[in-house]
Amino acid sequence: MNFLLDVKPIENIGGILIYGAQVLLLAVAAVTAILLFFWITRSLYRALFKGGSAGAKAKESVIEPTASHPAGFSADAEIVAVIAAAIAMAESESGGNTKFRVVSFRRK
């Protein structure tokens, strides 16, 4: 156990830079290895439990205009409404006097 205490100080700037480069390289390698592990685990999970890639399913499911979604309907308007409702709810929880109420509007 005495070898842990036998640390020689680095005496010149070149040694400090080399030591810093080694530590940086080791940190980058460790982060890369962890990300690679997560990527492989995610790919295996998708292959085993979802039955294929999500990209193929996303290409197959195309939303067609129907009676509930007319041709001029924009999905962006629905997203804006959801975000506005979330902001209103957050403001009402933060101590404001406003009440949060969800109302459904249907086009006729």
Structure description:
Helices cover 59% and strands 0% of the residues. The longest helix is centred in the N-terminal third of the chain and has 38 residues, at 13-50. With 108 residues, the chain is mostly helical. It has a domain at 10-63 and 75-93. The mean pLDDT is 74. It has helices spanning 13-50, 54-60, 75-93.
Strand proportion:
under 5%
The H-and-E topology, N to C, reads as HHH
Strand tally is: 0
Largest sheet features: none
Helix content: 55-70%
Question: Kindly state the mean pLDDT as a whole number?
Answer: 74
Radius of gyration: 28 Å
The backbone outline, from C-alpha atoms, is elongated
* Number of separate helices: 3
Strand pairing plus helix content: what structural class? mainly alpha
List unreliable stretches of 5+ residues: none
What distance separates the N and C termini? 81 Å
